[in-house]
Design brief:
The chain contains ten helices and eleven strands. It is of the alpha/beta class.
Length: 316
């Protein structure tokens, strides 16, 4: 596979940092992150092969919840925070000016799609994980399919809206993926994309410790300008941008500062020892998240928030 930039095709790059998997400890290997000499896009180098990527994704690394007291409290908290995303998607759906289905690509356990369906948006889900799809169906009553968007069984121009929350940074070929999304959307359809913002203040300070770079799962690391070029190359025009997310920005900083407290990482790495231990760590993580709010609100107000969420219109 070519190690050229996926945005501009430039082959030269400069070293930026070296890091490891701080969150899930799937490998002890160190990875380089380089900046494209042409456009500045950050990427892993050498770029991983498609066949090696699955080893860096633990089973059920997405939030699934459980029926314990701690699990129910965590799901309720996440449901509260995800209203921010739901409002953004609802507005984009209205802006599309068409009735019809929407698809959440990379839906995980289906929490967001379930919230949207409760608000009257006909949301469906798509995920590469069979366990995630099963959870979406049974926990959140979301019609969901397992698979890849590029081979998804939807007719061309059949969707009013397509969303991708924290998907594009994982893709070896994000341009091809977004072109597949373009083909599925109706004229004037909307695409909602959220990704970590590599131009944020957190990255400037924390570098390889910033959770948004998530080595080795994030093979590309976009700034807002990179995301704009990516979307433009696939036939989209950005119409709305948001730099703050209640679900992601404070929690991202908390995870950067203390990754072993992050709830999904604790489950994957089996760090909890009984119910009392889990509740204590949940409380400690929540306190760290709340303490992170002022800084993350400030950096977002400066246009340097740790995530960027955009609504884009299909134009060509």
């Amino acid at each position: 596979m070519s190690d050229a930039c996926v945005l501009c095709g430039h082959g030269e790059a400069r070293w930026e940092l070296t890091g490891r998997d701080r969150l899930y400890h799937t490998t002890a290997r160190a990875f380089d992150v380089v900046a494209c000499g042409g456009c500045g896009l950050l990427r892993l180098s050498p770029r991983p092969l498609e066949a090696e990527l699955p080893q860096y994704y633990p089973q059920q690394y997405w939030f699934s919840g459980d029926r314990s007291l701690a699990g129910r409290l965590e799901e309720s908290f996440r449901r509260l925070l995800i209203r921010d995303h739901a409002r953004f998607v609802q507005r984009a759906y209205r802006n599309a000016g068409a009735t019809g289905p929407m698809l959440d690509a990379g839906c995980g356990g289906g929490l967001l799609a379930g919230v949207l369906r409760a608000r009257g948006v006909p949301a469906m889900g798509l995920d590469s994980s069979a366990d995630a799809v099963k959870l979406a169906w049974h926990r959140h009553r979301v019609p969901a399919l397992q698979g890849d968007l590029r081979q998804a069984p939807f007719a061309p121009r059949s969707l009013a809206l397509l969303s991708m929350f924290h998907v594009v940074e994982h893709l070896l070929d994000p341009v091809g993926y977004l072109r597949a999304a373009h083909a599925l959307l109706r004229d004037n359809g909307r695409l909602v994309v959220q990704a970590p913002n590599a131009d944020c203040l957190q990255f400037r300070v924390l570098r390889a410790r910033w959770s948004g770079i998530d080595i080795p799962r994030h093979v590309q690391n976009f700034r807002r300008a990179d995301l704009q070029r990516l979307l433009s190359s696939a036939g989209f025009e950005i119409t709305r941008t948001k730099h703050f997310s209640w679900r992601d920005n404070p929690a991202g900083l908390a995870t950067s500062l203390w990754p072993s407290l992050e709830p999904v990482a604790r489950r994957v790495r089996q760090l909890d020892r009984g119910g009392a231990s889990r509740l204590f760590k949940d409380a400690a993580y929540l306190a760290l998240v709340l303490a992170s709010v002022p800084f993350t609100v400030l950096e977002a107000a400066l246009g340097r928030g740790s995530t960027v969420m955009v609504e884009a219109r299909k134009i060509a």
